[in-house]
Structure to design on (434 residues):
């Protein structure tokens, strides 16, 4: 699916779609890496006698790595560009992913998860930077939705394939294979990608189309300036509240189906991929819906918020998962939650480039990622505690409420959804502009 092109240049020669394909591929690989642990979790918890609290701690280590790595990786993307930034980060996290195969304890898994998280956080700060550079405003949410759909495609692919590899060759091999994919992608990225203003394959027509209506901002704002706007806190709070929900499903769904719903690993591999298909539809559909609304006269603010509130309403169905009468019904409710969450997320990430200039998108995405990292670090610990002492029910209740709270923060704090005026603030505060 693609919104109608206004260019005379043939579709296959429009380079921004080639770039978006690379972003989609790296996101798929990223989430195959992430999902591998959760697919083999039934085997790991039995092999190493891990409690839900132990498993939650491993998940928290990954999110702690995400939080620690967010700002350095965002800075690398802004300072050295997406070509170098992605090269480093993907090689870094792919190595860590492969080393999971030698882990023998909860501590060792936690160390490798931290390492992997410290690199994988760059996927979104880098992806947002590339989208900000390569896509006009009316296509940004769609582009974000497409590359964000890789998270669902990766999870979809990982569940049956990793389950098969683990049952056929053992859980250690399930970590090695996906790590190799990351290094293959790095080679493709180095061969194919160049920035917009240095890419010889971009036609003048496409370059003008991308840049038409762009807001120019020459000043690379200092970090302290970024946080002086309430738009920053709107984005930070929104991601901090929305993020843990999808992290919960990625990390815990196979184990929940195995422990609580009595499904075998083979049956999980055969059926638990379905919610991620709905997540793909939501991710692309959410971005497309915002663009569709704008093409029909809706303001940027209205298009973003309408789509995000609709997604939050779907996420509220998390409360129905625990009470479902069967495993099939539980999976059906998870499908709707995944659809809504990814539609919401596509617009949440697009809002960063709506509200901040290109030179700040990488760092602003990283700052929201720190917020997501903190909440993502705490939520697995809370989940493990609640599951060991009570059940999954209170976790599903909390997961149903968080997205609406995040969208409420974004709605309230962004006001009329104006792009930040960094130059004016710096001049009024006498901040040096070099």
């Amino acid at each position: 699916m693609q919104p109608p092109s206004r260019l005379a240049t043939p579709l296959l020669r429009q380079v921004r779609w080639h770039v978006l394909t690379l972003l989609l591929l790296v996101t798929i690989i990223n989430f195959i890496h992430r999902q591998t642990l959760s697919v083999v979790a039934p085997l790991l918890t039995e092999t190493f006698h891990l409690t839900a609290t132990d498993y939650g701690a491993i998940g928290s280590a990954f999110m702690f790595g995400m939080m620690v790595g967010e700002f350095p990786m965002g800075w690398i993307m802004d300072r050295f560009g997406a070509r170098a930034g992605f090269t480093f980060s993907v090689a870094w996290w792919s190595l860590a992913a492969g080393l999971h195969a030698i882990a023998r304890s909860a501590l060792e898994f936690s160390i490798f998860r931290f390492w992997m998280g410290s690199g994988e956080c760059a996927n979104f700060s880098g992806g947002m930077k590339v989208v900000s550079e390569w896509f006009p405003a009316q296509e940004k949410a769609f582009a974000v939705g497409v590359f964000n759909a890789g998270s669902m495609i990766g999870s979809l692919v990982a569940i049956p394939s990793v389950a098969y590899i683990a049952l056929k060759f053992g859980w250690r091999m399930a970590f090695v294979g996906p790590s190799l994919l990351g290094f293959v992608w790095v080679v493709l990225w180095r061969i194919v990608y160049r920035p917009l203003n240095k890419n010889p394959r971009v036609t003048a027509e496409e370059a003008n189309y991308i840049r038409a209506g762009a807001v120019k901002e020459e000043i690379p704002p200092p970090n302290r300036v970024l946080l002086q706007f309430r738009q920053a806190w709107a984005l930070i709070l929104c991601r901090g509240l929305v993020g843990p929900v999808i992290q919960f499903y990625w990390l815990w769904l196979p184990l929940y189906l195995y422990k609580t719903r009595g499904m075998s690993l083979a049956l999980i591999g055969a059926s638990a991929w379905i919610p991620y298909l709905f997540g793909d539809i939501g991710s692309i559909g959410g971005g497309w819906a915002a663009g569709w609304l704008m093409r029909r006269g809706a303001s940027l603010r209205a298009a973003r918020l309408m789509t995000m509130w609709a997604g939050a309403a779907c996420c509220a169905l998390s409360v129905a998962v625990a009470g479902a009468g069967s495993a099939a019904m539980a999976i059906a409710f998870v499908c709707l939650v995944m659809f809504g969450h990814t539609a919401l997320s596509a617009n949440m990430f697009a809002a960063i480039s709506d509200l901040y200039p290109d030179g700040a998108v990488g760092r602003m995405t990283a700052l929201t990622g720190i917020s997501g990292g903190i909440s993502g670090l705490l939520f697995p610990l809370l989940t493990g505690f609640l599951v060991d002492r009570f059940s999954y029910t209170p976790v599903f209740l909390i997961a149903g409420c968080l997205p609406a709270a995040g969208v409420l923060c974004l709605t309230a704090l962004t006001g009329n959804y104006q792009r930040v005026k960094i130059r004016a603030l710096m001049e009024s505060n006498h901040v040096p502009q070099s």
Observations:
- The CA atoms of residues 118 and 275 lie 27 Å apart.
- The mean pLDDT is 85.
- The two ends are 42 Å apart (CA to CA).
